[in-house]
Amino acid sequence: STQSTWGVSVFHNMPTKLHIVQAASESRPGVQTPKQICSVTLPSENPTVLEIKKAVEKEQKGGIFTAERMRLICGRGDKKVPMADNDTLDQYALKSGATLEWKDLGPQAGYQMVFFVEYFGPFLIYPLLYFAGGLLHGDRWNSRSEAQNCLQLTAMALWCAHYLKRILETFFVHHFSKATMPLFNLFKNCGYYWGFTLFISYVLNHPDYTPVANHTQVYAGIALFVVAELGNFYCHIILMRLRSSKNPTARGIPRGFLFEFCSCPNYFCEVLAWLGFNIATQTIAGYVFMVAGAVQMFIWAKGKHVAYIKMPEYPRGRRVMFPFLL
């Protein structure tokens, strides 16, 4: 607000008072009036949603009211709209005196921790099953052919290289737009990655596994895997340059390389990497893993593509995940 003094405009940053109530989904059945949680006063006239969350956390002294596990919701007509951390109050046409709803998102886990645990499992489990082959299969393991052992070692090297790359990217490349995710996701993601690792490693490291006889096919599969992994890494570097650790939620338009043809070429490269792995190893378990991953990544890519095309300057000719196709 402004006030004129002797013809000079003086700006005053008015404090903002907000009332926080329990979201309808958090209230007990039959309760018509939402329970008042607290009121907070912020020095800024137009605070960000994250600043409001931290004020609530301070007022309520943490617990289930930590900023990471709370969602703030505002009413917009007949709709309830979840508020994004970096948005400001005026973006929702709200002013001092407004009432916001609070929703508990449940226990949270840090993105880096979740990614590390879900990737470290496959990195550790796969070689454990290989080196435990003697215990699991006895003399049959020791009587394998040289070709069988060579391809099993190669498959283990490719698998571990992929997950080592993922672990390093988690700590040194990726900037996560959110600090945490629901703790349940840790168990869900580990179940997926660890379960498929057990499945594929058991099949590939079994004495009855028949290695691919065509050496050209094996070499072609390994070459595709390596090229695709490098492509995936380069895509992640391009995405990293759009953000910084100080502003991890910044959204820009990725350009160059395969981004000129689709919105999420990093996922496309990952599918190609697993295709190369399967060309070299030829197991049903490996192909099931590749298809399951491709379906999930396409769902993620579709969501990202929808967000991108809301930007007026985004190139309309780009596909979702597969260049020239989908």
Comma- or semicolon-separated keywords:
14% strand, 326 residues, two-stranded antiparallel sheet, 49% helix, elongated, alpha+beta, single chain, 5-stranded mixed beta sheet
Tally the beta strands. 9
Please state how the strands of the largest beta sheet are arranged side by side: 4-3-7-5-6
Q: Could you state the order of secondary-structure elements as H and E?
A: EEEEHEEEEHHHHEHHHH
Mean pLDDT: 89
Q: Proportion of β residues?
A: 5-15%
**Per the principal axes of the C-alpha atoms, what is the gross shape?**
elongated
Structural summary, described in words:
Strands 4-3-7-5-6 form a five-stranded mixed β-sheet, with helices on one face. It has a two-stranded antiparallel sheet with strand order 1-2. Helix 8 runs antiparallel to helix 9. It has nine helices and nine strands. It starts with a strand and ends in an 18-residue tail after the last helix. A hairpin with a 2-residue loop joins strand 1 and strand 2. Helices cover 49% and strands 14% of the residues. It is an alpha+beta fold. The radius of gyration is 26 Å and the shape is elongated.
